[in-house]
């Protein structure tokens, strides 16, 4: 069995651009993503917390 135990998703690509930055959908703090990025944007703290919630338990 050569498959990894837990497959982790690749981080979302950072779009080129500068401010204004999108607000985090959870805590409303600025993210590292420009406002032009589509989808739910998370700040680094909420992104880390979300990955902890969805990580495999082992």
Give keywords.
58 residues, alpha+beta, two-stranded antiparallel ribbon, 19% helix, 14% strand
Structural class: alpha+beta
Q: In DSSP terms, counting alpha (H) and pi (I) runs of 4 or more, how many helices?
A: 1
Widest β-sheet, arrangement of strands: 1-2
Identify low-pLDDT runs. Answer: none
Please give the radius of gyration in angstroms: 14 Å
Helix content: 10-25%
Strand elements, count: 2
Overall pLDDT score: 79
Strand content: 5-15%
Distance between the termini: 17 Å
H/E series, N to C? EEH
- Main beta-sheet strand count, sense and barrel state: 2 strands, antiparallel
Describe the protein's architecture and organization:
The protein is of the alpha+beta class and 58 residues long. It has a domain at 21-54. It is built from one helix and two strands. It has one helix at 44-54, and strands at residues 21-23, 30-34. It has a two-stranded antiparallel sheet. Strand 1 and strand 2 (30-34) form a beta hairpin. The longest helix has 11 residues, at 44-54.
């Amino acid at each position: 069995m050569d498959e990894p135990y837990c497959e982790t998703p690749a981080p979302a690509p950072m779009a080129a651009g500068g401010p204004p930055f999108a607000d985090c959908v959870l805590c409303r703090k600025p993210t590292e993503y420009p406002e032009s990025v589509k989808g739910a944007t998370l700040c680094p703290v909420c992104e880390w917390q979300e990955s902890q919630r969805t990580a495999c338990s082992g």
